[in-house]
Predict the 3D structure of the following.
Amino acid sequence: MLMSLRLDRRYGGLRSANFLTRPAMLLAWVCLLAAAVVEAGPIHPPLQTLRNGHYTLVSAEVDHYDAEQRELTLKKVVKLRGPVNVAESIQVEVPANAAAAMAAGQRWLLVYSDVRRDSREARRNVRTDRRFIVHTDGADPAIFRDTDEMRALLADDHRTVEQSEDYPKVIRAGLRSEDPKLVDLWLAEYVYRPGTFQAPSAVDQQRFGAIVADANQLPAARARVLLAAIDRGPAWLASWVADAAGNVLEAMSPADVVQHPEQRQLIYAALVVAERLPRMAHRKVLIKWLGGDDGIAESAIDALAALGADVERDALVAALEAEEAPAPTLLMIRRRLALLQN
């Protein structure tokens, strides 16, 4: 189950007995849920995670970004919560793509940490002289526009709202936000509260399907819906899931993933669904993904194998004859074909 997975301290990835036998599937989860600053243990809803006592919440404006150091310099900084004092100007390590999306002249809310695991003692945290933006599922990275709504969500007293009987209504309203970043946040709040949402309603399922189908939503959010549907089983599965995965695979190509690496997690998720819910109608589109890198191609092969050994063999032979895939992928395909023939 999603909540039983554990964050691996060394890699910030996931360890699960159900997934270790499938490297490509494991990578799908790693791409989706990896966190640069994490605590070992169950995966918590993002708003709960962001209230971690080690983290600092600030409001600030962008000054400039140092691409070489991956550091964002912030000015007019105001601390809203956190364990240490904060200067008016600070540097925070932030991915380049996130920094590029932060418009100058606007105020932003950032959650960061200056704590890392002690390399000598895994259970011990140590404070460093660097600040790192927090990454957690639903807030990857934890950077938001400074609005009254976001301040209220990130405030300590929001836990009272989260414990109320009306919180499911709050989450469902959030899923209809016009801001894809907030849709991602609220979707993670939904997925990581299995006690609150044991089985999605018909209205919820309709909204989930719309999120997956909407190319304007974040790839992480679209992928999370597909993987949650597979992981949670019958109560979450709906008739639209397999078709939605097929539509995702049809709409993009291996070249698109090269140009837009953030889409990789979505493709992996769709391929996981294609394997778990095999449809012969997806055979042609799965063959297309044999032209991707060896990780994506391996997941495509797993999905083809679910359609039958003959389907898998024919697809592998055709891919080798076409010689259009990258060299590492062709090598992997030869190995898979050799296993089939032995």
Notes: Residues 1-40 have pLDDT under 50 and may be disordered. The longest strand covers residues 121-133. The two ends are 35 Å apart (CA to CA). The chain has 16 helices and eight strands.
